[in-house]
Structures are given as C-alpha cells and as structure tokens.
Amino acid sequence: MSTTDKNLTTSWGAPVGDNQNSMTAGSRGPTLIQDVHLLEKLAHFNRERVPERVVHAKGAGAHGHFEVTNDLSQYTKASFLSGVGKRTPMFVRFSTVAGELGSSDTVRDPRGFALKFYTEEGNYDLVGNNTPVFFIRDAIKFPDFIHTQKRHPQTHLKNPTAVWDFWSLSPESLHQVTILMSDRGIPATLRHMHGFGSHTFKWVNAAGQAVWVKYHFKTEQGVKNLDVTLAAKLAGEHPDYHTEDLFNAIDQGDFPAWTCYVQIMPLEDADTYRFDPFDVTKVWSQKDYPLIELGRMVLDRNPENYFAEVEQATFSPGAFVPGIEASPDKMLQGRLFAYADAHRYRVGTNHNTLPINRPHAEVNHYQRDGQMTSDSNGGKSVYYEPNSFGGPTEAPQAKPAAFPVSGLAESVAFDHSDHYTQAGDLYRLLSEEERARLVETVVGAMTPVEKEEIKIRQIGHFYKADPEYGQRVAAGLGLSLPEGL
C-alpha cells in the first residue's frame, strides 16, 4: 500500500469516514455528541501540551554517542567507561533555565547540559549546566531562587528587584552571578559552550575503592559568545536561533563534539581541602586536581519528533549505574528526589517506558499500573517481592559503597563561608575589556532595582570579591560604597 492509500483512523484504529465535517442533526442542526471522532480530536487537542518544565522549559536536543578515549576503570566499575573505544548511545538536551517554553534562546541565562547514556547496566543521567558552579548550595533554597527568576504575581513581569534582593541576601551566589554577567552569560550557539556535571560525584571501582569526581565537557568547536546587542536583536527577530543552529549543523553533517575530562580527588582530601568539595558554588583548582581525559561525546542525529524525543525526555541526577554514586553535596541530594518527582508529575509515573527514556538494558521490577502504562504492565508475572515464583531478585554486587556518617541530625550551614575568593579570582582573570563589559552588564541589570539598600548590599559583595569590582559597579550606579568596607 502506498502512502496515499493509507486510511486515516481513530486512535483505536477504526477508519475515519469524514475528517472535514462534523456530524449534525440536519444540515444546519446542532452537533451530535455521538460524533466520537470529533470529540476525540477536540479532547486530545486540549491535552496536547504536557505541563512545561518549571525550569529549563525551552530546550533543544539531539542523539549521539560517547566513546571512551582513556581507560579509567581503576577508578570506576561503570561498564560504559570500561576500555578505550567503548561506545555508548546518548541523548542530549540543552536548555535555558528561567524562561518559558516560547522564550528566546539568546537571553542571558545559564544553559542546561543534560546527558542520557543508554548503558548496558541501565540509563545514566548527568544533569548539569554550562557553568561549573551554581547560585545556591542547598536545595531548600531552590524554590525561592527560581521564584525570583519567574514573573511577579501582580504585574506578571520579570522582577529585577526580586532577583537582586535574593542574590544580595545569598552571597554564595556571587561566583555564579559573575559568570552569568560576564561574556559567558550568552553563548553564541549551543555548540560553542562547555558543559559541566557541576556537582561532585563518587566513583567506585571493582574493589570497592572510591574517589570524588567532577565532570568537564570541553567543546571542540571553541567557546564563542554573543555580543549583547546582537543577542537582543536575535531575541526579537530569531528567538529560536540556538535551536535552529544545532539542528542545521547536525543535518548538514557538521557534528558537534565535546571532549570529556574529569577531576579526581582522593576521599580523604575532602576533609582538608581549602574549599568544601561538596559546595556547588565552588570549583576545584585544576592545579590541585588536573583534568584527566575520559572520552568524547559526538552528536550526529536529530530527533524525528520534537515532542516525543525532546519535550518528553526526562533526566534525573539520581539515575545512576553501578560505579557512580552521589556525594554529600546538599544541592545534589535535593535534586536526587526533585527531578524524578517533577517527571512523574509532568510526563507521568511511567515516563521511563517512553521510547526516548526507555533503557537499552533489560528492565525487571515490580512496579505496576499508573497512568500511561504503555507496555505489557508485567503481564501475568509475579508482582511482589520476595516471592517463591522465580521473580527478579536484587544483585548484591550493585549495592552502593558504604560510607561513614557522624554528627547530630540538625539543619546546619556549610562550614566554609568564603563566598568571595573564587569570584574575585575569576574577576582578576578577565581582560580589561571583559571586566568593562561585565561591569556594564551588572549595572544595566541592577539599575531597575527599586530599593537602594539592595544595590548597596550587592555592591558590598562585589567589593569583597575585588575592591575594583565593587568600586566600578558603584560608580556605574552612581552610588557610594557601603560604610565599613
């Protein structure tokens, strides 16, 4: 049968006799409720949009693969990292953070860098950003932070006062704010930016020995950023610029690639390092823990359907495989729950059975039922455990490595409160031209803030990072430095 010979059907497979005219009582009569094809079309149309992501709503994705170029199996037993030349299929989603689904690609915002590895031991998700740090370091602050990035409940407009009020009261944000307000805040394309796992993770080898690890994905296209004037022009004239660029590059055979490196820290160093290695607002010095090449990521195939493959793709930092585990990073600990829970709400409790999320490894569990059950639902097999009927059982060799815990159960802050050294180091690494653009961007972003005390408080943070940094921002805003500095 040729394509033109195919019958249009309902979702239950029955042929549709008329798809142009609804059924009515007489030629001018009211529409009949018995026109089930009409009702199905309208009902499905009303439900075509799943709730957009609360954060990272606007995104683009592609398929590819990861190839190991350096065998680091002495540090991790993860099978997909075992042996030079080992290839693992992947799906990658890039995104902005704060904007809605229809927002512009070229706004000043961090970019999500979410990777799904379809390994033989199950899916491994690495859900990071194009920055090595984040604004906050405890998940309990995340809803409040994101509220400041969203719209005012009365005006429904973006609210710079809320943004800078929160940042000025959360000095741990200064490192990420400096990155965001620098040239790196607006990547030229999704292909011309680095990616980071951001958090600290734990690798465990076959002997049960563990190390702490951070991931770095360095773009092979080179880092390029957009001038603010061009970015604003593109935001108005071509809001899907990054999405189109990624699609066209892959479509034309210009496959983007990233080289993956890791930093490895011995477990015992976490107790003595000059910064808390589990504080996601900090980086590890590459002089202390040099980059070690691990592999190469290549994106070489576009999605066939955006909704099915990009919008319904779900990533969770808690999707681990044997050999990779969590660290005590308090932001990571919160994300282990929050991401998967968001997917259960947004896409459905069976989101991992969708083709884009379905593991390439065999899946055996006792979860049953729930909305959108699209597989056999376990058939007639045993549906509880333990059982006497040969159902799947646990694999003791896959248990996470034991780790010591101590202290009181209480709400505590991080021990290290130095929010300024690394932000100041970053400022001093910039050229004079880059510093000037950074200050100009900060001044422009802070000018609309309604309360002067917020501006003064934030200027104090800039000054503590580097006196010149604070002085230039203060001068740009026409304000004096805070007393006591």
From TrEMBL:
The keyword Oxidoreductase applies. Residues 9-393 form the Catalase core domain. Residues 1-29 are annotated as: Disordered. It catalyses: 2 H2O2 = O2 + 2 H2O. Keywords: Heme, Hydrogen peroxide, Iron, Metal-binding, Oxidoreductase, Peroxidase. Residues 1-25 have a biased composition (Polar residues). Its EC number is 1.11.1.6. PROSITE patterns: CATALASE_1, CATALASE_2, CATALASE_3. SMART domains: Catalase. The keyword Metal-binding applies. Belongs to the catalase family. This is Catalase. The lineage of its organism: Bacteria, Bacillati, Bacillota, Bacilli, Bacillales.
